[in-house]
Inverse folding.
């Protein structure tokens, strides 16, 4: 009997854009274009600078970044175990012995010419989370392979993880195709997923002390996209942001602890002190925020050249994303999203 594990992808937070200012907002076309701020990653200002970026609305900016004024927490109590220290700027990839083929910079095609490249879908014996969180994978594994959900949760909680994980399975369950004997039981399958992840990292020549950091960065790329051909461009913006040392200002990170799946964040969430607040704390989040595929890992290890500091998804159906170097150009791209939202109200 074919066993299909079609991963449950959380609402793709591909906009890196602050959501409605009003917590009660439904995110419809009427309020999002008015309330959404350009928090798709604002270039950090020098310490002491009072300059703020121009706003598309009359409200003051909520996103002026001073990269050295905040420090990320070193630990957090999310999940059953403590997590690792938040890391910051990417290091030169001189330790990588193998590199994926060079990816050309993303183009800026007209919407009518845009050809989306979907993430791998679920299929026979395939786990394709597309950015799923561990809590989603557990239910998906149970439903698709006929395991009891409690057995899967126990298997995930008890599986032996590399010490670099800090005891947190998030990001360490590799998507892909699995079959007998890997699927003989929940314990065996979860063990196979972790083993495959270790193999992926080892095959790329990464030193062990970089494993968690690379997985964390790849998980952000995975969660910020639902279109494979946008991963290199998002990886470049992420790399530039990390090198800048400031806050990443990506909504997918903020939404990691949120129980429900949604796209936009609230002003309260962006002002909170929870450890995954990418507007308050610098650098990568304390842990991975999804289960990345190999394309996300490779995109982070070898991003295309570019000095983009901003990106915004202008079509939430295809995932078409526009990149910009200047905030002025970015605001032009934001207007494309707002126009799309007016035509396609998004809850």
């Amino acid at each position: 009997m074919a066993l299909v594990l079609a991963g449950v992808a959380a609402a793709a937070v591909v906009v890196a854009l602050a959501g409605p200012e009003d917590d009660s907002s439904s995110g419809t076309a009427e309020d999002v274009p008015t309330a959404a701020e350009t928090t798709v990653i604002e270039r950090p200002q020098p310490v002491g600078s009072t300059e703020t970026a121009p706003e598309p609305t009359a409200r003051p900016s909520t996103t002026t970044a001073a990269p050295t004024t905040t420090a990320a927490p070193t630990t957090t109590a999310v999940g059953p175990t403590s997590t690792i220290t938040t890391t910051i700027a990417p290091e030169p990839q001189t330790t990588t012995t193998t590199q994926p083929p060079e990816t050309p910079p993303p183009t800026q095609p007209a919407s009518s010419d845009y050809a989306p490249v979907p993430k791998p879908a679920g299929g026979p014996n395939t786990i394709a989370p597309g950015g799923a969180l561990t809590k989603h994978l557990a239910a998906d594994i149970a439903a698709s392979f006929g395991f009891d959900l409690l057995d899967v949760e126990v298997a995930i909680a008890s599986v032996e993880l590399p010490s670099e994980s800090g005891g947190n399975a998030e990001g360490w369950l590799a998507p892909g195709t699995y079959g007998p004997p890997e699927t003989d039981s929940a314990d065996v399958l979860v063990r196979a997923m972790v083993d495959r992840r270790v193999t992926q990292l080892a095959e790329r020549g990464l030193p062990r002390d970089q494993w968690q950091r690379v997985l964390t960065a790849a998980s952000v790329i995975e969660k910020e996209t639902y279109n494979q051909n946008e991963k290199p461009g998002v990886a470049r913006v992420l790399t530039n942001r990390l090198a800048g040392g400031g806050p990443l200002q990506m909504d997918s990170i903020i939404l990691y602890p949120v129980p429900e799946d949604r796209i936009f964040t609230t002003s309260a969430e962006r002002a909170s002190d929870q450890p995954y607040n990418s507007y308050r704390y610098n650098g990568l989040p304390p842990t991975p925020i999804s289960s990345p595929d190999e394309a996300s890992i490779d995109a982070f290890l070898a991003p295309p050249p570019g000095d983009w500091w901003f990106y915004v998804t202008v079509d939430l159906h295809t995932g078409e994303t526009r990149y910009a170097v200047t905030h002025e150009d970015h605001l032009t791209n934001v207007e494309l999203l707002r126009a799309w939202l007016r035509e396609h109200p998004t809850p």
